[in-house]
């Protein structure tokens, strides 16, 4: 290729208008936002549906509830043995006892699978409340993560060997068990945009089909009325010209019946829409 042809080709490329025959995803106004990452200690991720019930701060510690001396003791002395005046771990122990009593098999059952799960659930929910108030407490955060994973292992074991008890314990403790996925899959922007584009195109297709269906439905009554007139004209012409009649009265009556049914249906739909608006 000589210099003249090269310069001519360069001039042609520079002067011609570049036309794009395809669309980018940005042209469809589709916006993708990365899903919010939920921490493993969050109740939405751990499966704890319910919160801890409120506890009376004036309630006595478990070891002193049956003390007869405290019943007649001064209020100042009694306050020393109340949950509100003592460390937090005593309130946690109170919740543990309450949860265990809900699921234990007998009054001395503290070692069954149900009792262990109830004890762990009470501790987890106490730790979650603590983390909501003190999100920088790393020690409690690590303990909470380990305890949630341990409870998941216990639930997985119970689900495998006694499914009825597994369902019962989930209902009693108000838990949701989320098994690990069979195959891990990263959420990527490219794949998510493909799915959003498919959804967007499907919505456009459905909207256009619905619009075209409405146009056809609006043309149904005029089409039937015109068809009845033409059939009656054809029949009359065949009778006047004394040729074989191909359009029967039953055929015309069938069209009239369909027209009346369609008009009644439109009237019912119109009245129904007016009543809904009212």
UniProtKB/TrEMBL annotation:
Tell me the Gene3D superfamilies matching this sequence: S15/NS1, RNA-binding
For the keyword Mitochondrion, the answer is yes
Tell me where it resides: Mitochondrion
Q: Which InterPro entries match?
A: Ribosomal_uS15 (IPR000589), Ribosomal_uS15_bac-type (IPR005290), uS15_NS1_RNA-bd_sf (IPR009068), uS15_ribosomal (IPR052137)
Manganese as a keyword?
no
SUPFAM superfamilies associated with the record: S15/NS1 RNA-binding domain
Keywords linked to the UniProt accession: Mitochondrion, Ribonucleoprotein, Ribosomal protein, Transit peptide
Which Pfam families does the entry mention?
A: Ribosomal_S15
CDD domains listed in its UniProt record: Ribosomal_S15p_S13e
Q: Which family does it belong to?
A: Belongs to the universal ribosomal protein uS15 family.
In terms of HAMAP family, this protein maps to: Ribosomal_uS15_B
Q: What's the protein name?
A: Small ribosomal subunit protein uS15m
